[in-house]
Amino acid sequence: MLTVLRPVLLAVGLVLFTCASLARDPDPYEKFRGIDENDEDFSYDSSQDVPWAEESIVKPAAPNLHALTALDIESAPRGFTVLLDTASLTRGKYDDLIRYWLALKSRRGTLNFSYEGMKCNTGEYKLYGYAMPDGKGLRPYAKPRWKPLRNGGRRNYRAELKERYLCQGVTPRPINEIRALAAGRKKQDIDPYAELLD
Q: Quick check: 45 and 57 in contact, CB under 8 A?
């Protein structure tokens, strides 16, 4: 009888010992933890947050035909080549936007220019205006607005432009790196998780 009860008594004793240990020290790692965010002493004043705002842009110079660089864009519209005016590339000091002249060149050699902005962290782009062949520079749109890039699909060249040239994930690339990528001097290190982040 004692032989049968011994394992049961041992199990009950182990359970009681474990419960007593937990009662004494409910969280043995508490001393290594930081301040609990749910603690009543923790407070965050969101009124001090500065909301994101787009910088006012200076009217860009007309596209530089000598700085146009053909990009390796697989999703370009059929019959067109995508070109980037690498001389026009800028990165906003405060809003962190990449702005540039982009051109679509037809098989007949016709160029269609648009001045654009890319917001890497949200995957959006904006068309500020266009340029005519007269060389007079930007002709602004009345109410430019941010538009989301569509992932996947054919002829989605702006999403490919973002991923392959302008942005590294959600961060804008340095201007010199974009120029090196466009010129083929730097290997394109495409982020394998970019589609999941967009």
A: no
Residues 165 and 84 sit within 8 Å (Cβ to Cβ): yes
In a domain, 29, yes or no: no
Q: Is residue 12 part of a domain?
A: no
Round the CA-based radius of gyration of the chain to a whole number and report it. Answer: 29
pTM of the model: 0.69
| pLDDT tens sequence across 20-52 | 665 555 666 666 666 555 555 556 677 777 787
Q: Which residues contact 69 (CB under 8 A, 6 or more apart)?
A: 83, 84, 85, 86, 182, 183
**Number of domains within the chain:** 1
Name the helix (H) or strand (E) containing 146.
strand 146-148
Domain interval for residue 153: 65-197
Give domain status of residue 84, yes or no.
Answer: yes
Would 15 be classed as within a structural domain? no
